[in-house]
């Protein structure tokens, strides 16, 4: 499971011309689910993202996580993060989870995040929709976080 996080001043998702979600200060998370992922990966990636220190402390060092910074998180499902780009000039999607599994793990991730942060601080995109994502990347600060199934 992969999560591309961006520290934002604001972010929003629009579907069919209608804004369905928005946050102020916080993290925009593009969430990619791979075919071998399970609820364990959703739990571990959520733990990692919510505790990842990307907000500045008094000295300006990235030393504060989104929860302690009082920020929100906007979670957007993005199957293209699971693409195989190792060869050629066209991505392959054999590593991506089937839609049913991906949506289930996306929902698991949202539930875990809401239990940790509170419902009011976790917004969501629309699984399977053609979304328009707008953001103001603060920094810019962007990190790709990954967790793999433990074998």
Mean pLDDT, to the nearest integer, reads: 96
How does the major sheet shape up? Answer: 6 strands, mixed
Which class best fits the helix and strand makeup? Answer: alpha/beta
State Rg: 15 Å
Distance between the termini: 15 Å
User: What is the ordering of alpha helices and beta strands?
Assistant: EEEHEEEHEE
Helix content: 10-25%
Strands, count: 8
The stretches of 5 or more residues where confidence is low (pLDDT under 50) are none
Number of helices: 2
**What is the general shape?**
globular
The proportion of residues in beta strands is 35-45%
Written account of the structure:
The chain is of the alpha/beta class. It has helices at 39-51, 99-117; strands at 2-15, 18-23, 26-32, 53-56, 62-65, 72-77, 122-124, 131-146. The strands form two sheets. Strands 1, 2, 3, 6, 7 and 8 form a six-stranded mixed sheet that branches. It has a two-stranded antiparallel sheet with strand order 4-5. Helix 1 crosses helix 2 (99-117). The relative contact order is 0.29.
């Amino acid at each position: 499971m992969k999560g591309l996080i961006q520290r934002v001043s604001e972010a929003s998702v629009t579907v069919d011309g209608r804004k369905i979600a928005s946050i102020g200060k916080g993290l925009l998370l593009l969430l990619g689910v791979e075919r071998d992922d399970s609820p364990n990966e959703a739990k571990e990636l959520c733990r990692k993202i919510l505790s990842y220190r990307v907000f500045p402390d008094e000295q300006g060092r990235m030393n504060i996580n989104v929860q302690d910074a009082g920020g929100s998180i906007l979670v957007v499902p993005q199957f293209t993060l699971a693409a195989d780009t190792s060869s050629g000039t066209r991505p392959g999607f054999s590593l991506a989870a089937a839609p049913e599994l991906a949506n289930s793990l996306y929902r698991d991730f949202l539930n875990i995040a809401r239990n940790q942060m509170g419902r009011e601080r976790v917004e969501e995109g629309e699984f399977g929709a053609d979304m328009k994502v707008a953001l103001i990347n603060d920094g810019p600060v962007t990190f790709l976080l990954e967790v793999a199934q433990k074998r």
